[in-house]
What we know:
By secondary structure, this protein is an alpha+beta fold. The protein has helices spanning 10-20, 26-36, 90-104, 119-127, and strands at residues 2-4, 42-48, 53-62, 71-79, 109-112. It has a single domain (2-127), classed as 3-Layer(aba) Sandwich (Aminopeptidase), CATH 3.40.630.
Amino acid sequence: MIRKVEMRDVSDITRLAGVLGYPISESIVKNNMSRILNDEKQEFLVFDNGNQVVGFIEAETYDTVYSKEIMFNVLGLVVDDQEQGQGQGIGAQLLSALEENAKARGINVIRLNSGVQRHEAHQFYEHQGYTSNHSQKRFLKVLEK
């Protein structure tokens, strides 16, 4: 079942963040989720199989001066890599649910980035009707406190 994320999902979200390639402590996820749950620009859905959350999609409103349309920017999409997860259509269902929520908000474009090395993910997105229209590198700078 797809539903909005809740604070009770912290442990599963922490585990899935690691599957996505972002290992992080449960306390940080808990802190971040408490902020995100109160942010109306965020959309955070989970797939709950009845025993645990086995996938999630997180997106935010992407509104820039240089874009004609307001978009949803997918920040993360992950499905558990154990036997109960990937290959069951869960990722497609999460994307579809996000698309429906976008339409309900009057948003007509979904934007997402995917690492250049994630070839299987690229094929998945293309199979879902997404097209690659840009190539970029990500640059970060950690600022001193």
